[in-house]
Amino acid sequence: MTQTETNPVTTPTLPRQRIAIARKEEIDRLDREAPPVLQRHFELIRQGLRHVPGIPPDAAKIEDAPTLRALALKPDIYYAWFLTEYHSAKEGEVDSATKELLAIAASARNEGDENVLCTPYHAGAARFEGAADDWVAIAQDFDRRKNELPERQRTIVEFGLKAAYQPRDVTDADVDRVRALGLSDAALVEIVSTALIAHNLSALNQVFDLTL
Predict the structure, then answer these.
(1) Does 18 map to a domain?
(2) Domain holding 156: CATH number?
(3) Res. 37 pLDDT band, cuts 50 70 90
(4) Burial 86-98 (b: 16+ CB within 10 A, else e)
(5) pLDDT per residue over 62-90, tens digit each?
(6) Per residue in 6-15, pLDDT tens?
(7) Tally of domains in the chain
(8) CA distances (Å), origin 178, targets 15, 32, 90, 130
């Protein structure tokens, strides 16, 4: 059902979407008013969007991203969400390319082959961060192809997925396998946070029927 635009914050619902997402102008405003660390992250998001397969780089604009426009309905949540994503996925001991592989695998579990949005974005972000194309393809089909990844990347992605999808099944042995890579306990938090952000954003897209 198409809605008439009466609210300055919202725009008519697009096909397949269950909510009236924020107008593009709201994304521009939130970007301008964001603290510097978030402005840096939004620029990284732009770079990731420009590497999404099938989207011309000059057509990949942050204000078009349905996930951002949905979260922009609640600006405080919008800022909090992406600040957490920045500190989890773009900073810390674990390289950002590996964490984007984790985000691909976590998103793909929620999205499957329908309502796909986060998986291709994180594939683009992984490429921007330097991940090889074959590693990106493996992450998209992680459960079947995980043994094709190097041990470090496979161990990190496995741990993050288990933390996000089977948290009560995580064991001391799982934690020790990550520590054996030379990573600190702070890095463990970093990995889990990255997995949860990817899980939650892809779940949000599924609930509200958001697609690229």
Answers:
(1) no
(2) 1.20.1290.10
(3) very high
(4) bebbbebebebbb
(5) 888 888 999 999 999 999 999 999 999 99
(6) 344 544 444 5
(7) 1
(8) 43, 39, 19, 22
Domain of 185?
A: 24-208
Looking at residue 97, its pLDDT comes to: 97
Q: What whole-number distance in Å separates Cα of residue 97 and Cα of residue 203?
A: 22
**Could you tell me the sign of the dihedral formed by the alpha carbons of 61, 63, 66, 71, in that order?**
positive
